[in-house]
Amino acid sequence: MVDLSKYPVEDLSSRESKKELERLTKEIEHHDRLYHGEDDPEISDAAYDALRLRLQAIEERFPDLVTAASPTQKVGVAPQGKFAKVRHARPMLSLDNAFTDTDVQDFTRRIRRFLNWNTDTDGAIALTAEPKIDGLSLALRYEKGELVIAATRGDGTEGENVTANARTICDVPSTLKGEGWPDILEVRGEVYISRSDFLRLNEAQEASGGKVFANPRNAAAGSLRQLDVEITKQRPLRFFAYAWGEESGLNAQTQMDVIKLFQKWGFSTNPLMKKCDGWEAAVEHYHQIEQARPELDYDIDGVVYKVDRLDLQERLGMVARAPRWAIAHKFPAEKAFTILKAIDIQVGRTGALTPVAKLEPVTVGGVVVSNATLHNRDEIKRLDVRIGDTVVIQRAGDVIPQVVEVVKDKRPADTSAFEFPKACPECGSHVVAEGDDVVVRCSGGLSCPAQASERLAHFVSRDAFDIEGLGEKQVKELFRRGWVKTPADIFELESINRNAADPIEKWEGWGDLSVRNLFAAIEERRTVSLHRFLFALGVRHMGQQTAKLLARHYGSFAVFYTAMKEAANGDMLARGELTSIDGIGDKVADSIINFFAEDHNLSTLDALEAALRIEDAEVVSSDSAVSGKTVVFTGKLEKMGRSEAKSSAEGLGAKVSGSVSGKTDILVAGPGAGSKLKKATELGITVMTEDEWLELIGE
Ligand SMILES: NC(=O)c1ccc[n+]([C@@H]2O[C@H](COP(=O)([O-])OP(=O)(O)OC[C@H]3O[C@@H](n4cnc5c(N)ncnc54)[C@H](O)[C@@H]3O)[C@@H](O)[C@H]2O)c1
Ligand SMILES: [Zn+2]
Question: Can you say whether the dihedral through the CA atoms of 512, 516, 521, 526 is positive or negative?
Answer without folding.
Answer: positive
